[in-house]
Structures are given as structure tokens and as C-alpha cells.
Amino acid sequence: MVRLITHNMLACHVKNCTKDNFPLVFSEVELVIRESEANYDFLRRFMPKLDWPALVDTARSLGDETLPDDQPEEWTDEQLQALHHVLMEMHVEEGNMTCRGCGHVYPISNGIPNMLLAEHEVGR
Amino acid sequence: MLTSSFVCPATVSRPSKVSKMPLYVLRVCMEHATFRIPSLLSVAQLYGFSIKFISEDADRGIVVIELDDDEDVDKLLERGTLILPAGEKLPPDPYAKPSSDLRLTMLSTASRLLAQADSYDQLHAYLHEHPEGLRPYLDKNFKFFVEGINHRIPSSRQRKSIDAFEQHGYTGKAAMKDPEVEFIIYEEYDLNEAHSHEKSHRLERDGQFRQVYFCVKMGESRARPLIQAHSVKTRSYYGNTSMEAEMGFLMAGQALPAPGKIVYDPFAGTGSMLYSCAHWGATVLGSDIDGRQMRGKGQGKGYVPGVYRAADQYGVRDRVLDCMTFDITRGPWRRGGWLDAVVTDPPYYRPPSRPYELVNLTRDLVLFARWILVPGGRLVFFLPTVSEDYDAVDVPVVEGMRELKWGEGSVQDFGKWGRRLITMEKTADDDGARPSFDDSEAVEVDSGAKIPGHFQFRERYHEKFTPRLQPSSSAASPGPET
Ligand SMILES: [Zn+2]
User: Fold this and answer.
1) Sorted alphabetically, which InterPro entries does this protein's record hold (chain B) (predicted)?
2) What's the CA-to-centroid distance between A11 and ligand 1, angstroms?
3) Could you tell me which of B82, B79, B104, B70 has the C-alpha nearest to residue B216?
4) B118, B151, B457, B478 - which has most CB atoms within 10 Å?
5) Which structural domains are found in chain A, ordered by start?
6) What domain range is B330 assigned to?
7) Closest C-alpha to A10, from A45, A58, A42, A82
8) pTM higher than 0.90 for the full model?
């Protein structure tokens, strides 16, 4: 159940991979929507930590078009609900996350992504 | 009063008022005494009220505190894991025989103090002189409860103690069911005299209490029953490293978990820490180098990993943001400055991917927290240590992080070794640099320098903690000679 809020905080960490290592690109995705109660305070507090373009692109790649291109300065409840849906309710249960920089594939199974690297890939 | 370097907003003294602040009595369990004050302070800090300790001796089953008002008591009852609720079998009270004859029908939790004295004569005299405290309750249907702390009071004398309160002019009726007010009388005895189970000794000692407290009951702990509810024994998924529920909740409490906050365990294992933090409303994240710990045995499409099954059982599945497999020292986090707390029990007991000296692991953990926490965020972790070698220098000193320590700190003592619960706060306003986790540099032990108590902990654990040779004869804590 990789959620997009988590995905937005993850980058490829293969050794010497510093270009285009974020965001990771989803493929072969099995998406599950689980409704949950929104906490707008939480969302407002977290907004400055988000990489907005990456979030919008990723949401669109998964078929959700509700987010605007630019991060709103003033949020309506409707926009907050859309953000909540994208960040918290979309769960990637199966699939891959691929680095655009080095091509490394991080597989997701049963909702748990495997981000372990082989010994020759580690280091920054 | 308290001597401590721990300056917490909760202890900042208020301007003195003419009217005395209400005092409250907390009946607390004797276990984990060094966790008491930090736990209570954390609840106070989380909800933003002040708490002043009138008595805080570690050897007492009672803590007397001063609060601004009754509402604050409710917060303590919500989260006070160490506060005893009614009907709980007494924990290791040395006086308690391991048999069923010690059945307390009611153990108080939090109550408002009406009077406190050395003797019943003094207590009643005080109540006559200050009738205003008792007056609002006199016409209510009431119930009395008498409890000896570190002592069992014969029922005949319990009766006598209750009857003596008639002199204050009660007009309400005694009501065993649904009383409007419950009075509690605590007789507090010295712990060190509580060894004998002999009936003769008990009778001799009866009435020789140190202090008697007369209180109105306010409520019972709602946190204490959680320990039973979250017991590893009934958990749908757990491993041999799962933390016992009580310690899990004590640890979680130090992270100030609350709705809207994100708490992260980078050594999540089977997820014990995640459930207790999530219970108090936090959103939680976990990672572990060993994915099998989080998944459990099954696999294939549709399989629900163990951590999510247990989270379901506790009704907190939606608060588990994600669980991931990776090595925190090679972690994929994109940026710092976004987590409210890092809570973890570092894996000194299982082999990591590569040799990782615990001294380095601890230092790296603090550096990692310095980077990834929001300003004011907390790092809470266990530091295993060989008791005789421990010294305060063992907690890594990192710019931008400070230890919140009460007295000698919170220790779970297992004899030859123990583990200290370390609580640190991020004082820096910036994220700073991403930590390198570069553990290539050896830990240098100069002759004459203090060796941290957790140095080579894993090796020493397997050597059963035979004392190590101190580099200097002037070491502050000489071990037993071999
Ligand atoms: Zn890459």
C-alpha cells in the first residue's frame, strides 16, 4: 500500500545516482482505493514538505487528474479533499517503482516496497 | 524539590496565587518507577498544561501533584500507562503474595486530595478546621474505599477507619452501587518494611503508616487496560523481538504521539512501536532491513503482511502510512525536516547486514534524527548498556539535539545489563546535512578515556558481561574484580 504521500518522500539511493532520481515512476500498478477520514490540519502542515510537480505527475500517471498544475495558495475544502484522496487514499498494492536516472527497479508486493540495494549499489 | 537539568515547560513555576492550587493523588504501579515522571511530563507537554510534583519518591505507590484544574487529570488518565485502574491485580508489590488472596476490589487511579496527615487524629482535626473541602460532598450518596500501600489492612480496621468519618456530618447514604461520590483513604507504609508475609508481623505493623491520604476519586486510567488489550500473547502477528506492550506504550508516550503527527520507526521489526503510537492518533511509518519481519511467512497476491494484520486488530490500519524494506543507513528518504518523532528499539540483538558497532549506530541515529525531524521533534530510543560501565557520556552529543533527562534517567534494569530509554528533542531550526552513516572510522578508545557502556555490546551480551578491563584505574565505575 505505497501511498503517494510516502512516494513523494522517496528517491532512488543507488550509488552515484543523483540525476533524475526523483520521483520514481510507477509501472504495472495494482491500485486500491481505501477511503479514510481527512485531517485538513495534517494536510496543511505537510504541504510545504511536498514536491508538488512530482505529486501532480505521479497522480496523473495513476489516472487521477484532480490536482491543479500549481499548488494553490488558498485551498478550498474541495481541493483539500482531492489532496487527501491523492495522498492518503490511493494505495499501490503491487507494481514497480523505476528510477529515471539509473533504471533501478524497486518492486512492490503486498503493499510493501523492497528498497534494499545490493552491496555494489550502496553508497551515496 | 526536584533537582534536574531537564527544563520542561511543564515544570515552569507559575506566579504564586493566593488560593492554593488543587492537589491530586495518583496511585501508580511500582514497576518502571524511573519512567514515571518523564511519562507524566510528556502528557503535560503534549496537552500544554503544567504539572508540579509535590512528592515524587521512586519507592512510593503514590505521587502527589499540583495541577491547575480537574480537566488536566483527565488527560493523565487518558495516557498515564503507569497509573493503576480499578481491580487490577497489584504488580510486584513486595508485600503481595503470588497467590490470589490479594484481591483488591478497587484500586484508585487519580483522585483529588482533601487532606493528608501523619495520623487519623490529625487528619480529622484538619477536616474540622477546614470543612470547606468536604462540604460539597456531605449530602451525596457515597462509597468508601480503604487501601494500604505496601500493606494489607485487616477488614475490621478498614471498617473502623471508615466509620470514624461519621463525625463530619454526612447526610448522604452509603451506596455500594452508583455512588455520587467515592472517597478513598490511602494508608502509606514504608516499602522496606514490607518484606514479611507473617500474619503476626502484619498485625503489628498495621496502623504504623507513614502517611494517610483522604481523597475524592476522580477516575481510573484508560491507558492501563491497553496493556492487556495489546498483549503480545493475543496479538495476531508478532515475532521474538516484539516489545512487551507496557514498555511499548511508555516509549510511545515519550514521542508525544497525536493526530496529525508522523512517527517513524526505522527498525520496525514486527511493528510493536507502530501500534502503540498509532493508538494515540499518530500516523506511523516503519522500515526494516529485514522485510520478513514485517511481512510474516505468507506471500503471493492478496496476502496481507503481518504488520497490517496486527494493525487491523488494533483498529489502526489506516494510521499506518507505509512499511518498507530498506537499510536505514542506506535509506531512500528524499529530504529531511518532516517527521515529528523517530521512535525505535535499535537491533542490538539480531545481526545487521554488516558489522555495525553500536556506538556508531547510536551516534548515526541521533544524526539521522537531527536531519529528518521537524524542529522540536523527538527521538526516543533504547540504549542497551552494561550497567556497571554506564556513564552519562554514552548518549551521543550532537549539535541541534538535546537530551531530555529526568534525574538519573529511565532504566529498565535486567541485572548485569539494562536498557535506558533516551528521549531527545531537536533544538535546531534547520534540517542540516544528510547524515553519511559512514561507519568506517573505528571507535578510538584512548587509554584513560571512558568507554561507552554500549561499546561492543553485542559481543559482551554473548560473553555474559564478564567485566572488561578498564583502560584506566581512575575509571569512575570500577567493576567487580575478576
Ligand atoms: Zn537511480
Assistant:
1) DNA_methylase_N6_adenine_CS (IPR002052), SAM-dependent_MTases_sf (IPR029063), TRMT11_N (IPR059073)
2) 8
3) B70
4) B457
5) 2-121 (2.20.25.10)
6) 231-426
7) A58
8) no
